[in-house]
Amino acid sequence: MKFRSIRSRLILFMLLATTVPLLLSITITYIHTKETIKEQALEENRNLIYQGKVNLTNYLNSINQASLTLYTDANFLRNLRKIPDDYRAVAEVYTSLQNILNTVHGIERIYLHATQSGQSTLVTPAIYPKREYRTEPYISTQGYEKYTTAIEPTHKSHDYGFPPSPTSYSDKMVFTFHRSITNVPSEKVLALLAIDVSLDSVADITEQLFNKDKEQLLVVDQGGTVVYSGRDSQLGTQITDKELLARIKGTQTEGFFESGGAMNVFEKMQTPYTEWTIIKRIPNSTLYERARQLTQINAAIAVIALGIIIFGTLFISIRITEPIKRLTSYMNRIQSGQLDVDISWNRQDETGIMFTRFRQMMDTINNLILREYRLELANKTNQLKALQAQINPHFLYNTLQSIGTLALQNNVPRIYALLSSLAKIMRYSMRNNDVLVTLRDEADHVRLYLELQKERFGDQLVYTLDLAPDTLDVSMPKMILQPLIENYFKHGMDHEGRQGMVRIESHMREDGVLQIRIENNGSRIEPEKLATLQEQLAGRGTGELEDEWAGDNGEIGVRNVLLRLQLYTPHDVGMRIENLEPYGVRISLEIDTEDMQDMHTGENKTAEARTGAGPGEVHTEEN
C-alpha cells in the first residue's frame, strides 16, 4: 500500500522526471564534447605537424644546400685529386669543410674520404681536423656510394675510425647526411661526404609540436627506424606497431588513425634524399581530458542538483500529502462523533484554504446543530410558558367580552375599544404556532400596544408608523418590535412634562435586507453603559446585557430579541443602539429577508408534518 500512496508515486515520478533527463543530458554532452574535442584536436595537430614538416624540411634542405657549395668551389674538386703531400690542397679542403660546419647549426662532425688520393678527413667544431690515408672509406659510409644523397637513420656518434679525442661523445645520438661527390657531368665518384647532425636541432623544431609529459612524437624513416622521439630509449629502434608500419609504407601522405587507446596523426616528408614520417600520438586520456573534466564538473553539479531535487521532492511530497493525512485524521475523529475537533493548519497556500473551508464547514454544521437545538429548546420553553399563561384563555376572553358588552350598554365605547385592543394583544401573544409573522402583523400588534399606552399617557404621547409598502409582507420573527418599544416606557420616557414621541420606520435595501428603525425622545443611555451594550450586541462582550435592557420579571428584553433573530438566520444580524441629540435613543435592526424566506418555508413544512395538513390546507383556531 505504501507504494500506491500519493507520496511514493510523487517521489518516484519526480525522481524519474529529473534523473533520467539529467543523466541523458550528461551522456549526450559528454559524447558531443568528446567528438568536438576530437575534431578540434585533429585540426590543431594537423596544422602543427604540417608546420613541423615545413620547418624540418627546410632544415634538411639547408644541410643539403650547404653540401652543394662544394661544387661551386672549382679548386675543391681539383684538390680532391691531388696527393696528400700537397699541404695547400689539404688546407683548402679543410677550409671548405669548415665552412659547411659553420654554415648550418647542429652539425656535429663532417667526414670526407677522397677516393683518388685515399685521404680521409674528419672535421669537428672542438678540435683540429684529423687526416689519414686509407684505401677504403670508413665502413659506415661504404653503402652510400651508389646514392647521390641519402640520410642514415639515427645512431650513436663515432669518430669514423680516428682515435677518440677528449671531446668525443660516443653516446650522443645523431643522424648522418651522406652525399657522393662526382666529377660532373661524369658519374665517377671523387669523394664521399658524411655530415653528422645532432638531434638537438630536430628537437628544437619538434618540441613545439607536442607535450612531452602527455603526448608522444616520432619521426620515422621509410624503413620503420625511429629518427627522433621524445623518449631517448626509442631513438634508432625499429617500431613494432603493424598498423603504424602499414601507414608509413603506404601511399597516403597524411591522415590519422586510432590504435592502442590513442589517436595517431601523421604526415610524410617527401624529399629527394629521404622520406620521413612525422607521427604524433595522443593518448585518449590526454585527448579527452577536457571532456572528462567537463563531465566530472557536470556530474558533480548533477549530484548536487540530484541531492537538491531529492530533498525538494521529499519536502514537496510531504508538504502536499501531510495535509491530506491530517485532514483524514480529522475526518476519522469527526466520524466517531467528535464534532468539536480543533482543526488547525496555519498555512497561506492551497492546503491552508482547504483547511479553512473545512473548518468553516464544520462550524456551519455545528452552528446548524446548535441552532436547531436552541430553536427546539426555545419552542419548548415558549410552549411551557404559554401553557402556564393560558389558564382557561376562553374564560379570559369571554370575561373581557362581557366587560366590553357592559361598556357598550353603559354607553362607554372607548372602554370597549380598549378592551378589544387588549384582547387582540393577548390573542397575538398567545398564538404559539406562529413563529414567523409579517411586518404588517407585527406593526398591527405594536399599534394596539401604543394605543393602550396612549390611553394611559394621553396627549403626552405621540407615535408614528412610517413603513414602506414593499416591507409589509416581509416575514420576521414574532414579538420583536414590542419589547424594544416597551423599554422606552419603562426607562426612557420623561414623565415630568416633555411630550413623548415614538417613531417606527422601515425600508428595503437593494441587497434584500430589511431595515427597521425605532426612535424615541426619551432619556439617553449613560455613555459607559451604552459602550457596554454596543460591545455585547456586536458579539465582543463577555457578560450579560444590562438588566434593564435584558428584561426582568419574565419580560422579553433586548438580549432575547437579538438571540431569537440570530437563531432564525445563519447570517449576521445587525442590531445597534445609539443616543440621539439632544435626547432620545435609536434602535436599528437589519434582517436578511432571504434567510426569513428560507425559514418560513421550513416552518411551513414542519407544521405540515406535525399536523398532517397538506400544502393546500389552512388551520385556524377560534378562541
From TrEMBL:
It is a multi-pass membrane protein. It is found in: Cell membrane. CDD domains: HAMP (cd06225). Residues 318-370 form the HAMP domain. Residues 600-623 are annotated as: Disordered. The lineage of its organism: Bacteria, Bacillati, Bacillota, Bacilli, Bacillales. This is Two-component system sensor histidine kinase YesM. Gene3D superfamilies: HAMP domain in histidine kinase, Histidine kinase-like ATPase, C-terminal domain, PAS domain. The keyword Transferase applies. The chain crosses the membrane at residues 297-318. Its EC number is 2.7.13.3. It comes from Paenibacillus favisporus. Keywords: ATP-binding, Cell membrane, Kinase, Membrane, Nucleotide-binding, Phosphoprotein, Transferase, Transmembrane, Transmembrane helix, Two-component regulatory system. Pfam families: dCache_1, HAMP, His_kinase. PANTHER family: SENSOR HISTIDINE KINASE YPDA, SENSOR PROTEIN KINASE HPTS. Its main location: membrane. One of its GO terms (molecular function) is protein histidine kinase activity.
